[in-house]
Backbone:
């Protein structure tokens, strides 16, 4: 990782935000190459998700929205990490991210004032009236094995003195014990951490000039909620029918307790989210007789009308993997984590995380990198739309004439069975959300009665990816060091970023063979002007050709062309041709300038 971080800074992929002021933890800027890389990734996602498909529409919503949205979504009440704090240094940690430590724990029963010194001190400090004679809170400190007990005592004295008025503490009841793999102690001071308490991750602000409770607003912690809130508007204006999706790319903000692993966990980041709305299984069954289920290990193929949530979920997991493969992250660089029932949110049916094997990932028992989350694909039932329907009082359901017609043709027994299942699902959800049992039964009955009228609330499959994590994955995946020996026997290390041409920040380097030959420069500039409306090119005439290649290799430019005397017709048969050099294997070929654009477009699209 250190090498990757260093290259990112040196070549202008990523900079620390506000670096000249010492930086700001959890915030990162993208330099010239990083900005291009990011733009390419977002463009590819947008194209794949919206323009290349008939069933997905786009949205671009605001970052600050009505705080009611975050009430309805549950973020105000439950979007929190459990946090612990070191009582000595006040450093905070996410409770689930404290690394297990082993060593000797020193326990103390409290601290008393050393009475003689204290009496003397009191005489000379008459002004201090409120003092504490003793502090008998238990406390403990973890030390590495072999360290002297005095080190623990120092931390304990700091603890008892902090915030109190103890001047001359005498520690009480010291006792030591060897402990293995505990997560209860501060990794920096060894002090026993505080009890875990929830810490809401949303950044708060005020809308308007008055900083009052009524004016509180939040920077969105995910882009998804705007999609749910705008569901009816998009549905009405896009002429889509369920199943269909709404996609959005945009900034999200989370006041992470411990931002870490470079850009992996940041406080400001970008998400690319799709909410794909589908019919509930009961509706599919009413319309198509049954719901098809598919293998959990393969792409289920083209969408079918009788797909229920399980098939759609599997479809989106596989579609997303294909997207990653298409930009150079092969399947063996990825991992998968299917959330267990205990890990799943109460409303979710399933969630598969696509992981990338980052260099800092944890390892399994065989020493293999397990990977860290790049994207989560969740089957979220009708939870989100239902919540917004309840909180806003606006209907979030849809009407489907085909369902109404199909329902009328069902046998009474089948109608009863589907009605009951839909009713039970709705009632379960309402009770879970705190609606009184009787009221929940009444509302669920209304919802289930809606089926006969062709009405239902769509369910949703949500592939939610982080742009910044993907950028970091692409950079880590592309990085390579290649050592070779030059003609004089000197070892040279070449750094090459093997980006897939689709995401590479610069697509083509354009070099005149010699800088001081105006006719070569003129021709090279002509080639640059010919190609730059189509893709990002980089003109470079400084240094020898080898150096120029090396610079583009570090930037991850997949191809470079050189304009030489043959281009100008020194060998007449090579007039208006250039040498194109491939980054990954160094091989070179001759191409006509007139063919260059299409040759490139074939490879970068
Ligand atoms: N709407 C669902 C949602 O937001 P999430 O798992 O919390 O789900 C989705 O976030 C994706 O956003 C993650 O898979 C990750 O790629 C990215 N992400 C989340 N928190 C992040 C952070 N602090 N820094 C960078 N990326 C983050």
Residues:
């Amino acid at each position: 990782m250190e090498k990757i971080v260093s290259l990112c800074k040196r070549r202008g992929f990523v900079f620390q935000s506000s670096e000249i002021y010492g930086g700001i933890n959890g915030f990162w800027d993208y330099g010239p190459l990083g900005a291009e890389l990011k733009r390419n990734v977002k463009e590819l996602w947008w194209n794949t998700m919206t323009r290349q498909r008939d069933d997905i529409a786009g949205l671009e919503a605001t970052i600050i929205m009505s705080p009611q949205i975050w009430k309805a979504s549950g973020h105000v009440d439950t979007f929190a990490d459990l946090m612990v704090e070191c009582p000595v240094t006040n450093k905070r940690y996410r409770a689930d991210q404290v690394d297990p430590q082993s060593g000797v724990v020193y326990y103390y029963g409290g601290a008393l004032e050393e009475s003689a010194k204290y009496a003397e001190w009191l005489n000379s400090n008459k002004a201090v009236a409120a003092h504490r004679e003793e502090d008998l809170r238990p406390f403990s400190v973890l030390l590495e094995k072999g360290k002297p007990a005095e080190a623990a005592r120092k931390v304990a004295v700091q603890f008892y003195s902090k915030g109190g008025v103890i001047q001359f503490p005498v520690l009480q009841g010291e006792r030591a014990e060897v402990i293995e793999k505990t997560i209860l102690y501060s990794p920096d001071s060894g002090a026993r951490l505080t009890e875990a308490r929830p810490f809401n991750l949303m950044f708060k602000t005020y809308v308007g000039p008055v900083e009052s409770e009524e004016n509180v607003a939040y920077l969105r912690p995910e882009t998804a909620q705007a999609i749910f809130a705008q569901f009816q508007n998009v549905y009405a204006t896009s002429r889509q029918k369920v199943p269909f999706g709404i996609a959005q790319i945009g900034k999200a903000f989370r006041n992470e307790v411990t931002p870490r692993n470079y850009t992996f966990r940041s406080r400001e980041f970008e998400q690319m989210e799709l909410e794909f709305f589908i019919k509930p299984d009961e509706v599919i069954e009413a319309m198509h007789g049954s719901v098809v289920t598919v293998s959990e290990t393969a792409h289920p193929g083209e969408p079918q009308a009788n797909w229920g949530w399980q098939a759609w979920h599997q479809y989106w997991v596989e579609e997303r993997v294909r997207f990653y493969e298409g930009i150079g992250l092969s399947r063996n660089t990825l991992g998968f984590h299917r959330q267990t029932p205990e890990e799943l949110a109460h409303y979710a049916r399933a969630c598969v995380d696509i992981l990338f094997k980052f260099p800092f990932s944890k390892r399994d028992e065989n020493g293999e990198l397990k990977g860290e989350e790049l994207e989560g694909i969740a089957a979220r039932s009708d939870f989100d739309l239902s919540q917004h329907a309840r909180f806003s009082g606006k209907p979030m359901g849809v009407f489907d004439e085909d369902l109404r017609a199909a329902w009328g043709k069902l046998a009474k027994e089948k109608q009863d069975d589907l009605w009951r299942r839909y009713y039970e699902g709705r009632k379960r959800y309402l009770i879970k959300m705190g609606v009184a049992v009787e009221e929940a039964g009444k509302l669920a009955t209304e919802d289930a009665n809606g089926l006969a009228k062709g009405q239902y609330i769509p369910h949703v499959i949500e592939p939610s990816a982080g742009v910044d994590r993907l950028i970091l994955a692409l950079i880590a995946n592309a990085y390579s060091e290649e050592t070779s020996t030059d003609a004089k026997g000197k070892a040279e290390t070449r750094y090459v970023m093997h980006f897939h041409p689709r995401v590479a920040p610069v697509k083509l380097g354009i070099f005149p063979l010699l800088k001081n030959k105006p006719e070569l420069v003129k021709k090279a500039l002509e080639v640059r002007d010919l190609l730059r409306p189509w893709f990002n090119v980089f003109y470079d005439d400084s240094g020898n050709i080898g150096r120029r290649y090396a610079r583009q290799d570090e930037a991850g430019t997949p191809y470079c062309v050189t304009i030489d005397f043959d281009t100008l017709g020194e060998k007449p048969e090579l007039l208006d041709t250039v040498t194109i050099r491939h980054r990954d294997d160094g091989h070179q070929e001759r191409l006509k300038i007139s063919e260059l654009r299409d040759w490139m477009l074939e490879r970068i699209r």
Observations:
- The chain has a mean pLDDT of 95.
- The radius of gyration is 31 Å.
- The pocket of glycyl-adenosine-5'-phosphate is lined by residues 222, 224, 254, 256, 265-266, 269, 271, 273, 373-376, 464-466, 468-469 (CB under 6 Å).
- Residues 412-432 form the longest helix (21 residues).
